[in-house]
Design goal:
By secondary structure, the chain is α/β, with parallel strands linked by helices. It is 37% helix and 14% strand. The chain is globular. The structure holds one DNA strand of 7 nucleotides. One of its GO terms (molecular function) is hydrolase activity.
DNA sequence: AAAAAAC
């Protein structure tokens, strides 16, 4: 008896796809389908509505855009009015960056066809978008607000839409886009194919699907709340004041060339980015208080490898696809456990391995408990013992402001901590001793084998060797007995 | 506690 060998992944060229699409897929370097593609593409080709649960980074965009393009190509010549080109496919996404990214993917798949793909979102001049729409667009990717602007300005005619995709639908509901979605969908023909993708199937999502999808087929590849097994998740107990140093320590310790540092507030992101920049790290910020132009520039610089750290709010948590991103930091524990899953989903994409480091302070105990419940895993906290041999700049006024008496609860603890710090001048400016801080930042080379894979393997993490990371403790042990009873109270 | 989106 032969034991069952894994079934070989199906290739795109086994699908009944137009040669133009197959060529575009091959141009992208894809041969085999991901699980969601293998499941969803035939269903979409059959014309059925789809309700898809797929983690980001699973090839979701290709899973819906390739079969939709195929269906559009099949009917390319049957267009009633060849002179005019109404929007035939509409894709809605929750954030501007996501819309832009989806559009770039769809454009790549459509590049050998005559189908025109455009993207509209807010924060940038509407006039070029109007001009592009006026010239004619078959596939439109949009964020809801700006699309409504175009509808009102009568620059987007949606009365001929045949295909609709609601991407990251749960996020769109979170943001409060439901009224906008309802309005947009009311402009569309009832006779259409609708695809809905969501990380979770909450009651709200189910209700949305019930209203706007017809007899949808459920496509589920990974448990919606599962985290990629290829991501090494570590939780470090730190104090607020040590977070920045902890990040820099871990970057060095694990040889991380690039990472996203997630924070909970826009202001926090701006400040932290400035601090890292002052520390000599090539840093960019990405949050909703930046102009759209700056946001796109930050993201592009990061994707090109010119920027080492991207300090971001949850605007970057979902869906963004950054190739070979070795690590993600949760500088702040996210308020919603679900966002934790999305944040760490930026790394370890497409089967690559990744690191997800979360910095936990005492006040985060409850949030960590929420994460434990969501990912159904017991989490261990590790203590970082940061040596005080790092060159430090004087703290900013803001940082000093944080030490006002009466803020935070860790006054007592801090006394002992200050004693330890007294061993070395913590903030005294001095010449950098560490080559890490000396050498100018060099953009990491994009190679087949990412540089970080050469870094110490997860199991060979030099914790013991350096003695800088103390053994793991149960969350409960660090935060008191409250955490031991995960059962919902009251 | 906050973030995301239209002006």
């Amino acid at each position: 008896m032969t034991d069952h060998t894994p079934t070989p992944a199906a290739c795109f060229d086994t699908l009944p796809l137009d040669a133009k699409l197959l060529r575009a897929v091959a141009d992208q370097g894809y041969a085999t389908m991901t699980p969601i593609q293998a499941k969803a593409i035939p269903i979409v080709l059959s014309g059925r509505d789809v309700m898809g649960a797929a983690q980001t980074g699973t090839g979701k965009t290709a899973a819906f855009s390739i079969p939709l393009l195929q269906r559009m190509l099949q009917h390319e010549n049957s267009s009633a009015s060849p002179a005019r080109h109404p929007v035939r496919a509409l894709v809605l996404a929750p954030t501007r960056e996501l819309a832009d990214q989806v559009a770039n993917n769809v454009k790549a798949y459509a590049k050998h066809s005559q189908l025109r793909v455009a993207c509209v979102f807010g924060g940038i001049d509407i006039k070029p978008q109007m001009e592009e729409l006026r010239r004619g667009v078959e596939v439109l990717i949009a964020t809801p607000g700006r699309l409504l602007d175009h509808i009102e300005a009568k620059t987007a005619a949606l009365h001929q839409v045949e295909y609709v995709v609601l991407d990251e639908a749960d996020r769109m509901l979170d943001i409060g886009f439901l009224p906008d979605l309802q309005r947009i969908l009311s402009y569309l023909p009832k006779q259409r194919q609708t695809l809905l993708f969501s990380a979770t199937f909450s009651t709200e999502i189910k209700r949305l699907a019930q209203s706007y999808l017809q007899d949808p087929e459920l496509v589920e590849v990974a448990r919606p709340n599962a985290t990629a097994s290829t991501v090494e998740q570590r939780f470090f107990s730190v104090e607020d004041d040590d977070k920045r140093r902890a990040v820099q320590y871990l970057l060095r310790e694990r040889g991380i060339t690039q990472s996203i540092v997630f924070v909970n507030s826009k202001l926090g992101a701006a400040r932290l980015a400035r601090s890292f920049e002052r520390d000599g790290l090539k840093t960019a910020a990405l949050h909703g208080d930046k102009s759209q132009d700056e946001r796109l520039k930050s993201l592009e610089a990061f994707k090109r490898g010119e920027v080492e750290l991207l300090v971001a709010t949850d605007v970057a948590a979902r869906g963004l696809d950054i190739a070979d991103l070795p690590a993600v930091f949760n500088f702040d524990v996210p308020f919603n456990a679900e966002d934790y899953v999305h944040r760490i989903g930026r790394t370890g994409r497409a089967g690559a391995s990744g690191l997800a480091f979360t910095l936990v302070t005492k006040s985060d105990a409850r949030l960590v408990g929420d994460i434990e419940k969501l990912i159904k895993r017991k989490l261990d906290l590790e203590a970082l013992e940061l040596e005080d041999d790092r060159p430090r700049r004087p703290r900013s006024d803001w940082e000093r402001g944080r030490e006002e008496p009466g803020r935070g609860e860790s006054r007592g603890e801090r006394g002992a901590d200050e004693g330890r710090r007294a061993a070395g001048p913590r903030y005294a400016p001095q010449a950098p001793r560490d080559p890490f801080f000396d050498k100018p930042y060099v953009a990491p080379e994009r190679t087949e084998q990412p540089a970080w894979e050469a870094a110490p393997a997860p199991t060979a993490a030099p914790r013991g060797a350096t003695g800088n990371i103390r053994p793991k403790k149960k969350v409960a042990a660090l935060f008191g007995a409250k955490q031991t009873a995960p059962a919902a109270e009251s």
